[in-house]
Amino acid sequence: MTPLLQVDGLTVVPRAAPGRCLVSDVSFTLQPGKTTCVVGESGSGKSLTALAVMGLLSRQLQRTRGSIRFQGQGLTTLDAEAMRRIRGRSIGMIFQEPMTSLNPVLTIGHQIGEPLSVHLGLRGRALQARIAGLLQQVGIPPERANSYPDELSGGQRQRVMIAMSIACEPAMLIADEPTTALDVTVQAQILRLLDELKTRMNMGMLFITHDFGVVADIADDVVVMFRGEVVEYGSVDQVLNRPQHPYTKALLACVPDADGKKPLLPIDYAWLEQQPATTAANLQHSMSEPA
Amino acid sequence: MMTSPILTARKLVKTYTQRSGKFGLGSHSFRALDEVSISLSAGSTLAVVGESGSGKSTLARCLLQLLPLDSGEVLFEGRNLATLSSAALRQERRNLQMVFQDPFASLNPRMKIGEIVAEGLLIHGMGNADERRERVLQMLKRVGLQEADMQKYPHQFSGGQRQRIGIARALVLQPKVVVCDEPVSALDVSIQAQILLLLKDLQQEMALSYVFISHDLRVVRHIADEVVVMHQGKVVEQGAVEAIYAAPQQAYTQNLLNSIPGRRAVAA
Ligand SMILES: Nc1ncnc2c1ncn2[C@@H]1O[C@H](COP(=O)(O)OP(=O)(O)OP(=O)(O)O)[C@@H](O)[C@H]1O
Ligand SMILES: Nc1ncnc2c1ncn2[C@@H]1O[C@H](COP(=O)(O)OP(=O)(O)OP(=O)(O)O)[C@@H](O)[C@H]1O
Ligand SMILES: [Mg+2]
Ligand SMILES: [Mg+2]
């Protein structure tokens, strides 16, 4: 089976400082109907990896190496127009910070409707009905379609982003911390909605999160990132229950328990001192020969 | 530790006008806060939890007079904030700080991080240039950022790094009350623990009081002394954190506690 997404050796650097790898030799695959969760410390390159797949890196950054294949097709060689057709239609993306990607001067109904009219040609009543349906699915009263983004709560904005990203029922959804602003009950509703798309449409999901409870609930595979590199990659059971890399072990040790009783503990970096310098080669090495 | 209240809110009411009707031509008023009363003891942490859209951020803004109230009053150290002159209110801002829910939207994209975090110190005339720089640097380090980061702009940071910049900006002023709106929601578990411990340390050092808005009950359990549960603009339950966890009274609160993800699957 052709993987839905295949990322190979992806490397991203700032144009101004090409020696500094923000994303370094990142590889993973995603199958249709599956969910790969990406976890890792703040600043480890999770969002940049997602943006690189979407071809949305800012102009100050540059992908220097690596291939990205979606449904067997190389994305890095596509022109801007072809990429735009894929984005929003075949690949949906939920960005980490809703306000940076919602347009403040357009109503949320308009913004949810845009991919529907651009990609599916929906108009008039059919369009309005679809927008109302999507709002309902993410738990926002459809009457709110005429509101502007700054008239919504943080979690409602995040849900508008989710509605936009799944409007065209994409084959793949890239979700960057999509439920950080949601309480557990609304989060559960959203995760059910995504799961339904996964089953019904065989949608694959690349899901960035720092919540290991969510990882345990939804992941098939897990990618662990540390300082721009993938330090561990395996099935959810492997990574959560039999972690190999010392970073994964240290990270899992500070996951709060569901009851919130375990003492708070930031990560212990003692293992890092015993590691050789964290170059890509060395990390690869320590992956194949666990410490 | 619990002493007299430092911040009290009495019967706060806030309505928004919302567009309605087919073309958004009609409008109706929506009560986002419906007679909300809370009281924050000096040196303690009051958590506000509740469903998305229940009015938590509205409450935060109203507490700090960043949004006008329809009715009700907010007392800080016994004084009604609404009756202060704008000069006096500006003075008090040093002591009443806010960490915003949407970090990127609250950071000026044209300012370097060093300037953003130092701005409050400058406005309130705290220290000379060298002292300010030193304080900014120390605070950035405590939230896990580095000296070199002072020269960077907001868009050069990750989501979690930006959230920590917002925290540093509020705490560097050594305020008395900090209203934190989802301050750790974008942070990995390690940095999250680091920030929660930092908040606790500063509380010890400077007798800080926090209003801590969060939807993550695991986090709330660690940081809060008391909890207020909001639902559709109303306070439906409040009490000591232990009591609410042990015996939630409202079905809504029970539901919140039961839906913590991974509760059954238990990740590690
Ligand atoms: N435009 C930029 N210029 C320079 N450095 C950047 C730029 N954008 C991001 N970075 C840096 O790249 C690194 C990776 O950023 P990224 O946003 O991918 O992190 P992340 O893993 O998503 O973190 P978080 O969990 O905090 O969102 C960070 O250290 C960040 O400071
Ligand atoms: N400017 C506004 N105009 C109209 N309605 C608004 C405005 N701001 C907020 N609201 C509505 O008021 C309600 C409360 O919003 P608020 O931001 O206080 O919620 P919240 O509890 O912080 O939610 P979240 O957890 O999602 O951040 C929401 O239904 C929101 O849509
Ligand atoms: Mg990110
Ligand atoms: Mg809010």
Structural summary, described in words:
With 291 residues, chain A is α/β, with parallel strands linked by helices. Chain A has a domain at 243-291. Helix content of chain A is 39%, strand content 22%. Chain A contains 12 helices and 10 strands. Chain A has helices at residues 46-54, 80-86, 98-101, 108-120, 124-137, 154-166, 184-201, 212-218, 236-241, 246-253, 270-274, 280-288, and strands at 5-14, 23-30, 35-40, 61-70, 73-74, 91-94, 172-176, 204-208, 221-226, 229-235. In chain A, strands 6-7-8-3-9-10 form a 6-stranded mixed beta sheet, with helices on both faces. In chain A, strands 2-1-4-5 form a 4-stranded antiparallel beta sheet. In chain A, helix 4 (108-120) packs across helix 5 (124-137). The longest helix of chain A has 18 residues, at 184-201. Chain A is globular, with a radius of gyration of 20 Å. Chain B has 268 residues and is of the alpha/beta class. Chain B has a domain at 1-95 and 209-268: Rossmann fold. In chain B, 35% of the residues lie in helices and 27% in strands. Chain B is globular and about 50 Å long. The chains are: A alpha/beta (291), B alpha/beta (268). The complex binds adenosine-5'-triphosphate (2 copies) and magnesium ion (2 copies). One magnesium ion binds at residues 56-57, 101, 181 of chain B. Chain A: It is found in: Cell inner membrane. Chain A: One of its GO terms (biological process) is peptide transport. Chain A: Belongs to the ABC transporter superfamily. Chain A: It is a peripheral membrane protein.
Précis, in short:
Chain A has 12 helices and 10 strands. With 291 residues, chain A is α/β, with parallel strands linked by helices.
Keywords:
heterodimer, A: about 290 residues, alpha/beta, six-stranded mixed sheet, 12 helices, globular, disordered C terminus, B: about 270 residues, Rossmann fold, four-stranded antiparallel sheet, binds adenosine-5'-triphosphate, binds magnesium ion, transport (chain A), translocase (chain A)
